[in-house]
Amino acid sequence: MPVAGSPLGERKPALLFSSLEVMTAITQAKIYGGGCHCGAIRFQVAIEHDQALDCNCSICQKKGFLHLIVPSAQFTLLSGEDFLSTYTFNTHRAQHYFCRVCGIHPFYRPRSHPDAIDINLRCLDGNVLGDFQIQFFDGANWEDNIEKIRAIDGKRE
């Protein structure tokens, strides 16, 4: 359902996914919870793959962001939409969301996949880094390598 003025655009926070198609896909996916450090922002995500990206661009280096790109339909913001602030730079196409209380960046809408959500693997609950294969992405040379990130992700959406 659309939410007017929502930083996530089309998605209304909900505890359950809404479509039968998504529910079918979720039965084949692993469900993870996650959020920011202070707990103001909580989300749930269905993940169907085990590949994450470690990008060396300026913002990812500073944030320590490990990328897990998922279709928007597999992401649900459970709480904290009113605690989200947005940072943009350069082309202003990527929407980098962060908690205005604790400053953690749990997810964002990436320029490379504008219809997807990019989860910070480090913001999933528990010690899950070992569940994923982390591949290097040369984001410092983003324009030269964008097709590689799209190929790695397979543009699932």
Describe this structure in words.
This protein is an alpha+beta fold and 157 residues long. The chain has a single domain, classed as Beta Complex (Metal Binding Protein, Guanine Nucleotide Exchange Factor, Chain A), CATH 2.170.150. The protein has three helices and ten strands, in the order H-E-E-E-H-E-E-E-E-E-E-E-H. It has helices at 20-26, 58-63, 142-153; strands at 30-35, 42-47, 51-55, 66-71, 75-79, 84-87, 95-99, 107-109, 116-120, 133-137. The strands form two sheets. It has a seven-stranded mixed beta sheet, covered by helices on one side. A three-stranded antiparallel beta sheet has the order 1-2-5, with no helix packed on it. The longest helix has 12 residues, at 142-153. Mean pLDDT is 81; it is low at 1-5, 10-26 and 153-157.
For the record, give the distance between the C-alpha atoms at the N and C termini, rounded to a whole number. 18 Å
Total helical elements = 3
Query: C-alpha Rg, in Å?
Result: 15 Å
Strand order of the largest sheet: 6-7-8-9-4-3-10
Order of helices and strands: HEEEHEEEEEEEH
Shape from CA axes? globular
Write a brief structural summary.
Keywords: Metal-binding, Zinc. This is Similar to tr|Q7NFC1|Q7NFC1. With 157 residues, the chain is of the alpha+beta class.
Task: Using brief descriptors, characterize the structure shown.
carbon-sulfur lyase activity; single chain; Metal Binding Protein, Guanine Nucleotide Exchange Factor, Chain A; metal-binding; zinc; CENP-V/GFA; 3-stranded antiparallel beta sheet
Please give the structural blueprint.
Blueprint (H helix, E strand, L loop, with lengths): L19 H7 L3 E6 L6 E6 L3 E5 L2 H6 L2 E6 L3 E5 L4 E4 L7 E5 L7 E3 L6 E5 L12 E5 L4 H12 L4
Parallel strand pairs: 3-10
Antiparallel strand pairs: 1-2, 2-5, 3-4, 4-9, 6-7, 7-8, 8-9
